[in-house]
Amino acid sequence: MPPIHVTTWSDAATPAARAILVHGTMTWGTECFAEQRPLAQWFRLQVPDRRGFGDSPDTGQSDWEADAEDIAALLDGGPAHLVGHSYGGVVAMAAATRRPAAVRSLTLIEPSALRVAESVPVVAASLAANRAAFSTDSPTMRQTKPEDYLRSGEAFGLPVPEFTERRLRATRTAMAERPCWEAEIPLRPLADATYPKTVVTGDWQSANPAYRAAVGDALLATSVFIADGIGARHHPVPGTDHFPHRDRADVVNGLLRAIWS
């Protein structure tokens, strides 16, 4: 077993299949995928906390490659459907290239692998902005408090969450993590895989305009690029932005149940 905490949800006497759900940044497994809990009526869900998040141990620096090794170790336990959101989408892509024979399906929810789609102008512009604003070596990042980092979402119309110790710890880990948008994930191995592949996104139509300009347009372009590159179905979810699985769980859960069945 990898050195991480894994929550298992399983309410079926005989689960139809196993699924591993990999969370994004500034959150943890059971929070990120709380709305997917009802799927445990039919499936065995394993919801890991990446290193430095949730109930997993602290880490010197959160790193998508180390996370991918942890998820690959979970896949060694037998074939499973694999889901990843945002940073976790990058982790899921990397884990799938390490254990292709153990992946029954791959579902990426707004994967943040921007480097993969850097040839797209809107993605290149977003990468340049990210590199300037979020360098962990910059004096601004070193001096920023987690509380202030969480408040920064107000500029994009995002609510400020409650400053619980778990939330602040997740934020501290996220502020120092290796940027997932710089990950160079080869698409060819994923394209060659024969299991079902799906990329889920928000449609971003109702998002705050500043939020869409700063984040949404690049994530959408990246998601479409990855879907095309690996031969995946692109499924935009109406009325949602970066968390379609949370904001329209009825749609995403129906999609996941169909894929896993």
Automatic annotation (TrEMBL):
Which positions fall inside the AB hydrolase-1 domain?
20-253
Sorted alphabetically, which InterPro entries does this protein's record hold? Answer: AB_hydrolase_1 (IPR000073), AB_hydrolase_fold (IPR029058)
**A GO MF label:** hydrolase activity
Task: Name the UniProt key words of this record, in alphabetical order.
Answer: Hydrolase
- Pfam families given for it? Abhydrolase_6
Query: Is Ribosomal protein among this UniProt entry's keywords?
Result: no
Is Hydrolase given among the entry's keywords? yes
Name under which the protein is recorded: Alpha/beta hydrolase
Q: Which organism is it from?
A: Catenulispora pinistramenti
